[in-house]
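Deliverable D5.2: sample structural annotation.
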Amino acid sequence: MSFGSVSNSSPLNSRLPSLIASLRSSIVNSPSESITVMTAWNTGRDITASLSSGTPQAAGPLFFSVSFYPMGSSRVSDSAKSQESLSRSPGAMCAHPVYAGPKGGGEETEGDTEMTDIGNAKYMIRVSVKLDGQGQRKDIIGAIFGQTEGLMPEALDLRKLQRSGRIGHIDVTLESKKGKVSGIIEIPSTLENVESAIIGAALETIERIGPSKANLKVNEIINIRSDKRLEMVERAKDLLLDIVNMRDAESGNLIEEVRSVLTTSEVTVFGDSGMTCGPNVGDSDALIIVEGRNDVLNLARSGIKNAIAVMGSGVPDELVELASGKSQVTAFLDGDRGGKMIALELAGALEKSLTRIAFAPAGREVEHLEKKLVGKHLGQAEAATKIVRRLQAEADRDNSRGKGKAAPRIIPDEIKGYAEHMPEKKNQGVFVLEGGEVTEAVGAAKLAATAEESEGVQALVINSSASARVVEIANTAGIPVVVATKSGGGTGAVEVYGVNELN
């Protein structure tokens, strides 16, 4: 039994005869069956007609059913009752209509008789179409169904495939330019790759659409599931990284939180002046002076527990007394102008008790240094007298510039001796170490790496001009002096000298 509907978009008497003729022809090859009853209803009024009867006239949509029974069947007498019962069932329609009306009351188009959910499609057949003239979507859809009919095996008949849900709605996107139409055809398929490829190849055989010559070319057959898998993998990677980063951050915060309790408990206060200090300040023979409380905490986290903070401007008398009883006193200060000023202040207050001075990298603060950098720059501490002399020269030069006078540059004899180590080859450099030793010459390509790896470097002597890159390498590695063929002047914590100045 099959059911269908006839739309009222055109007169009923012009549609029903063609439908009846189609039904008559469909039973030519089935002599053992005949259509005995056709029941139609419209707005609750029953109309019964046999296939040979005249065309019933009715306004509005007409729903009908056709029953097939073997010849002489006793069920023929019950057909009217069964059809009448069925006709009164509200909304009774079959899933496979003999004829479906047009979408939205427009002109009917092949391929739109059944809309199928294609959410489980395996492949998307994407075909480009070019017409020499004009054409519409319905022309292309009609050509696809009409010109591929009989070309492929019956199992790949497009109408049957669409009715059974093996291919989905054929989507056509067109644009017209200079009187010619072109576009893209997309057909979702749940068939296997072989069948999908055959359908794509069949579409390329279409040579004419409507009055225009046509050229169809399969651009690609997309493996939808494969693309989804790739997207899934990439998204899973992102999610995994988020989870790992979150876990690492939480673990790091947990470790630091617990560690801060230990370091905070180890930090104490020295004397009546309230200077923050580590637990070993009183017992250790060495003393490290920093600027503030956070500097002491950072050094304690790095395992250095003999640090004390001056806690702002001024040097307390208690600190002067404490430093006088130590064999080695090192000032470890920020790598900015404020750190240089505190160094001069400490040198003036502690005098000979201050033995060494170290700075954080240019622009960095001691409280934010990693453990590795803390050890490195403390190890590069220089004699206090040398640092103070250089800082005073900078201050004098700045003062002279402020007065509009050209200040003579004071160059220590030690720095003048660095010119003797100038490499012979162009763009090569050597490092002068703390004990006066000189490294082997290295090329410009390895200069930065060698500077970072070397410890206790007092100067970089290079057979080239003091470019911004050379000064940056020295600054990053904590090298205070650069001797080059041409001077570039002082830059931050680095003093640059030309060979002509040292002669």
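Annotation notes: Confidence is low (pLDDT under 50) at residues 1-13, 26-117. The radius of gyration is 47 Å.
The annotation will be released with the project's public dataset once the embargo ends.
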